Amino acid sequence: MCGRYLSLSSPADLAERFEVATVKLDGSAPRYNVAPSTQVPAVLEHDGDRRLGPIRWGFVPRWAKQLKGSPQPINARVETVATNRMFSTAFKRQRCILPADGFYEWLDRGEGRKKQPFHIADPDGEPLAFAGIWSVWRDPSEQDADPLSTAAIITTAADGEMERIHHRMPVILPAGLWADWLGADEDDAPHLLAAIQALGAPRLVATEISDRVNNVRNDGPELLEPGSVD
Fold it and tell me: What is the assigned CATH class of domain 5-224?
């Protein structure tokens, strides 16, 4: 799964990397501890226009009757995203890329021992492209309220460096799949699953860090310092 990640790159850097035509994202301070329910950068495509803008992490389906108390999953499994009632329409029509400058995962070391957090990132320091889906929710009880755009990260079985840490990991799209992921139409969408399944293990480096990352209020470069919970 993916429950915490980093968002360090500026809008200008993300726009250049993902070849974005329209930027609707204000510059903000780097975030070293992005948590669910916060606004995160997202790359979407509409009528051939690739856009970079903010989106709320935590998927709310368009048919939800209310926000409070509704499930807001942060992840969607690649194995079922095309058939799950909550996600299937978004997978067919509303896919996105969620840029991340690394993410965190916790190794379960057994009963009685603290989980060991890891910082996982591209070995060259490049932003990762998480495969995502998005939705627009409108409050049926407040017709004049602004619509809420939300997203979930697609996850898959762990591979490569991640296998020793956790059984799940985000789907990390190589550059060659970005255009198809963002722009494939409803009829072509099922082929994306085959393309993802054919991907090899992504190039990642995992570093043990201290448990300061466990507290979402901690947010700074010190979270990336090597360390151990022992």
Answer: alpha beta
